[in-house]
From TrEMBL:
GO terms for molecular function: ATP binding; ATP hydrolysis activity; lyase activity. This is Phosphonate C-P lyase system protein PhnL. Transmembrane segments: none annotated. InterPro entries: AAA+_ATPase, ABC_transporter-like_ATP-bd, ABC_transporter-like_CS, CP_lyase_PhnL, P-loop_NTPase. The keyword ATP-binding applies. The lineage of its organism: Bacteria, Pseudomonadati, Pseudomonadota, Alphaproteobacteria, Rhodobacterales. The keyword Lyase applies.
Length: 227
């Protein structure tokens, strides 16, 4: 489902004399269907950089990033957008909200994008928002003014609306109370049970112990020259 081999990344600092900083080399990992793999390693080890390469936001210098039959390292922007629509979900810590779009639509949108029936998409959105304890009074409002934790729950509902075969999670329980954290971990378990391959960053060790099958220490891929 997710197969990474020989992945390398340099950052070129164009505003600092073009200095080239090698941050990753020889990265490899695989996530099978129904598995959740946690990226670990010290701050600055490259966890977020690796996730951004898998999602196609950062270009790799070398290597292969196979996601559901697409090599993201080589794919065209159009193929990456199609992959994100149908097969690869991403729950970041922060919601990027389109102004004036009501919460229910924000959550249903990924389902509508793959051609799901509108009533079914809205029903799924309502179900997720109520499981995540977002008050019904907020569903018709844009999430722009919501609290950090409310926005994170809208983002999680949106990320779990469509049953993507591959999912990236960036600290999905970061600003949640224990009850909502438990709901999110249950959503992750349900996604695994339906065969999703999940790659995530979890600073919450208990969450990692509950849902993750393996850990990959990204520090092992830090080039010596950058250490
Ligand atoms: N856009 C960028 N330009 C230059 N260097 C970058 C950029 N993004 C990340 N880096 C560098 O790449 C390295 C890895 O950063 P990254 O954010 O991936 O680490 P991380 O493991 O996610 O850290 P944290 O746990 O603190 O979030 C760091 O040395 C960082 O300074």
């Amino acid at each position: 489902m997710i197969e990474i081999e020989g992945l390398a990344k340099d950052f070129t600092l164009h505003h600092q004399g073009g200095a080239v900083i090698p941050v990753m080399a020889g990265a490899r990992l695989s996530v099978e269907a129904g598995e959740c793999v946690a990226l670990t390693g010290a701050s600055g080890a490259g966890k977020s950089t690796l996730m951004r390469m898998v999602y196609g936001n950062y270009l790799a210098r070398a290597g292969r990033i196979g996601v559901c039959g697409v090599d993201v390292a080589q794919a065209s922007p159009r193929d990456i957008l199609a992959l994100r629509r149908d097969r690869l979900g991403y729950v970041s810590q922060f919601l990027r909200v389109v102004p004036r779009v009501p919460t229910l639509e924000v959550v249903a949108e990924p389902l509508l994008a793959v051609g799901e029936d509108r009533d079914a998409a809205l029903a799924r959105a309502r179900d997720l928002l109520s499981r995540l304890n977002l008050p019904e009074a907020l569903w018709g409002l844009s999430p722009t003014t919501f609290s950090g934790g409310e926005q994170q729950r809208v983002n999680i509902a949106r990320g779990f609306a469509h049953p993507y075969p591959a999912v990236l999670l960036d600290e999905p329980t970061a600003s949640l109370d224990p009850a909502n954290r438990d709901v999110v971990l249950t959503l992750i378990e349900e996604a695994k049970a339906r065969g999703a391959a999940i790659l995530g960053i979890f600073h919450d060790a208990e969450a990692r112990a509950r849902v993750c099958d393996h850990e990959v220490d990204v520090g092992a891929f830090t080039p010596r020259t950058a250490a």
